[in-house]
Amino acid sequence: AMAQLSYPLSSIRRVELKTAFNRYGFDMEVERYDYDQFGQWIDFRQTAGETPDPLNLGEVSVAFVEDNSFSGFTGPIRGWRTRLEVGRTFGTETFTSVLTDVRRYYSPLQMLSFAVRGYHYGRYGIPSTGQDFGIIGDLFLGDTYFVRGYSANSIDIKECPQLVTTCPAIDRLLGQRIGVVNLEVRVPLLGSERFGLISFPYLPTDLVGFVDTGVAWNQGDDPSFIWDPNSEARTPIVSAGVSARA
Q: What is the pTM of this model?
């Protein structure tokens, strides 16, 4: 359940107030199949398993939002967007969340634009250090929304040392706080005669070159801004590539 109130300060700025309540309940059933020494099924039992207590979370937040961006065919090409938000979660777990999302768009040439984003989301006031707290898990940095090219299945087993219980390549993607910087260079390949290298307005398409970098950390386990992918420290991850946006 959630209620939100927006109050416009101007045509490009507003304040948002939000209150919400979330309840997560759990249920588990255990199915047991018994077989004899010859592999023949002889019995089946179904019992209730042990479940964690329900998770009840209330939330209040306030945000300052501004949007003075001007879009081309596939996204903003000039101006800026900003969201600054502070929230308080209470109930089964209590902590403060902070969100900063700042985006800037530049068009020095008619057929070339740049986009920059700085993003931070963190949970503060968590009593535990470097561990999951309660049943609320870590944030996951390896998401396309943050750093393109990473996912839950993008880590090769060869990147993890053998005979250990942790894997730095995976551990550095998890944390209660994350910071991200994204850079893009955009060229309108297909578009109109005024905004497109090739006049084909039926499927406007931009070619995008990007560099993404991000870091995840916990209270008491600060990031280490060094370039060493093999380090066990919380070093940043980086990806670069080319994409198309239609």
A: 0.84
